[in-house]
């Protein structure tokens, strides 16, 4: 089962907002925020990454492969992540922890997490100390 | 009158010598003080509260002063020494309200205000093993055994009358005795600046003076987020909050939903079957409780960092659907159920009572709005297992519409609350999307605050029962306004019919939930 249509719609809505932010002329963004928007757009608009997520959503085997050697998975698919972005699988929190595909990057002092939870879709946020999802 | 006779140099221990900052004091009051009244009184003396980083003043970026409701750092507006007549005038101005006046010292190796601290005048740590030596007979010292228990090697003493005999004087007397040395009798030092303070980077968190937008004052007021030390410095939320309401905007970029896409009958943007609910009501409630926090856009929700929303929508407003949605929440892993509506006619129905009781027995915390009629608390808020939430405003006054009575549990902000809105229907625009709202009001957002706080508490300690969560939230609520009398007795502390146990205080609630479970004395 590929990415659920509603999750795709939510992603598209978020990506459009990032694009709009970069087009502002009357309210210039800080260099840090500009970089964050750009990297998130690069990730979200990359068809190969979306295909990887498509496969990740219903393939525990792929999740294990990424846990073991994410670099090889990316190489085999010809995916080149934006500069400074890393990818890994983490365990979600809660009573029934599910694997989450996490893209992570840092701009100056801000570390950004872009998570894909197969059940809930995309969620991006800045990292905090003791962040919820634990590394697998 | 006692003039300031603190030593200019003070040896804290054999390694640390600090220097008196004569232009500053720490005032310790017996009771909580209103900021505005205190500031007015200080102005008369050419003094002011030590300023923190704020929207108005960017001068002290990132520096948050550790004022509490009883302890206030003050400084001379003119940069003059506070001594002699001025010191006496401070004592006279506050008279019996003052418990003590603390001197402020500067650590010579720590630059700026970060090096300022106050050796508290009412406390001393005395090394174990030398306490058998004679203590001064004319000064009353009491050992705080609870504090001593967690200070291996030392015993913690409070000075009963620190205004007559401040700690530095008592310590000097003790050091005259040969059995004491500098490391054997220590001060308890309070730092002027907080070491940390978490403020989310969400766009609408901070006020905007240019537009008059007040920011998420509700999170600051309830000590959820900074400035200052707040709940989020201790813990960020997780867990699942079921929002039984009109449904949610399922593609909203500032809300994070549980898997399963929202449960039964969640049609997303809006619910035409429920004209009685404000348009997008469920989306607004969900945002207050759990908008995704620290994500560089929109608003922050009380439990929003790792929390998810389970949006459960009525198809028709029947008791049968209510039971159905409660059951769905129980069976699908909700930790908290938020019910921001009032249906008094369902109060006597056996099936509804059973469904609420089943949720309670399943260790789910139930929160509901008290109602917006200004009359008696509605249902389900009045159910014995439900935390009934009323609404306060930015001044901690009860909102006139907020229903009240013996079933009222606590208050939370419910006027001009920023939150998420259905796509394009809000009045706040971020990233060119009008998906947020600045002025959600009612006891609905108040209940959502309490639901978010319950989720925070459960993420600190998942073993808490609904009764324990209620006890913590009620027992740590701030009894506001200060002029209001809380004259009714309950197992969880004083209460009254208008404010219940008071307005929620998330920091104190989390402190009470963290082990060891310290409960604030009533």
TrEMBL record, chain A:
Protein name: Uncharacterized protein
Source organism phylogeny: Bacteria, Bacillati, Actinomycetota, Actinomycetes, Kitasatosporales
From TrEMBL, chain B:
Protease recorded as keyword: yes
Family: Belongs to the peptidase S8 family.
Organism for this UniProt entry: Streptomyces luteolifulvus
Keywords in alphabetical order: Hydrolase, Protease, Serine protease
GO BP terms, alphabetized: proteolysis
Regions that span the bilayer: none
Organism phylogeny: Bacteria, Bacillati, Actinomycetota, Actinomycetes, Kitasatosporales
Residues annotated as the enzyme's active site: 245, 281, 444
Pfam family, one: Peptidase_S8
Name assigned to this protein: S8 family serine peptidase
Peptidase S8/S53 domain location: 240-487
Gene Ontology MF terms: serine-type endopeptidase activity
Record-linked PROSITE patterns: SUBTILASE, SUBTILASE_ASP, SUBTILASE_HIS
InterPro entries, per database record: Peptidase_S8/S53_dom, Peptidase_S8/S53_dom_sf, Peptidase_S8_Asp-AS, Peptidase_S8_His-AS, Peptidase_S8_subtilisin-like, Peptidase_S8_subtilisin-rel
